[in-house]
Amino acid sequence: MILKRSWIFIIIAFIYAGILSWSIYFSTYTQKDSVDIAAFPKTIGGWTSEDVPISKEDKAILETDNVFVRRYTNPAGEQVFLFIVYSQHNRKVSHPPEICYTGGGATIVDAKKEFIGNGADTIAVNRLKSERAGRSEIFCYWFKVGDQFTSNYWEQQILIAWRSFLRKSASSALIRISSSINSGEPESVTMSRIKKFGSNILPSIRTFIP
Questions:
Q1: CA–CA dist 150, 56 (Å, integer)
Q2: What is d(CA 78, CA 76) in angstroms, rounded to the nearest whole number?
Q3: Average pLDDT over residues 186-198
Q4: pLDDT tens, position by position, 124-156
Q5: 3-state secondary structure labels for all residues of the chain
Q6: Which of 208, 197, 202 is nearest to 75 (CA)?
Q7: Band (34; pLDDT cuts 50, 70, 90)
Q8: Using CA atoms, how far apart are residues 28 and 47, in angstroms rounded to an integer?
Q9: Which of 89, 104, 116, 110 is nearest to 33 (CA)?
């Protein structure tokens, strides 16, 4: 009889824990962000921008509307694309963009680490080269969790989990800068363009993405 009561207690405890976990999960992932990422500056250091439409299907995959793609252009006519997706509660929005690129028919032909920034304000990023339909592109991406940057997806997930455990802000963002390799242009020139733009936006990223 005592043994049966113990099993009944264990089963009830498991059911209670499951209900509690589900309620926490549901309440967390249905919370609205208090930060609108679209407020990110449209003009930075001489670069001006225009928004690029994002389909409902793409937003559904990302599981958020708190995202934008912009084409930034400087007075010299150089162009880069900035993609930022952000969530204060849903860690799933920040996944490696290689998944989207390869899923869209592109081939990743080169991948390595790079650095963007100036002096002490320099961060490590992932640098990839993709090819699709005869068009080559370089894109760099990294993650932001709270006030910390990382180029490693799994480190980002651990940071989110750790900050959540400590009951700190566990907001996360994926930042991606890309630019096409123009005909006859060395890859180093494309990368220089990305780095120049990246150095300009880093202070704003720290300010506008909490």
A1: 28
A2: 6
A3: 96
A4: 999 999 988 888 999 999 999 988 999 998 898
A5: CHHHHHHHHHHHHHHHHHHHHHHHHHHHHCCCCCCCHHHCCCEECCEEEEEECCCHHHHHHHCCCCEEEEEEECCCCCEEEEEEEEECCCHHHCCCCHHHHHHCCCEEEEEEEEEEEECCEEEEEEEEEEEECCEEEEEEEEEEECCEEECCHHHHHHHHHHHHHCCCCCCEEEEEEEEECCCCCCHHHHHHHHHHHHHHHHHHHHHHCC
A6: 197
A7: confident
A8: 36
A9: 89
pLDDT digits (tens, 9 = 90+) for 60-82: 877 888 999 999 999 999 999 99
pTM: 0.81
Which tokens in the block code for residue 191? Answer: 């990368």
Average pLDDT over residues 92-113: 76
Q: Which of 92, 97, 95, 91 is nearest to 169 (CA)?
A: 91
56: buried, middle or exposed (CB in 10 Å: 19+, 13-18, 0-12)? exposed
Tokens of 195: 């780095």
Residues 154, 174, 114, CA angle at the centre, nearest 5°? Answer: 75
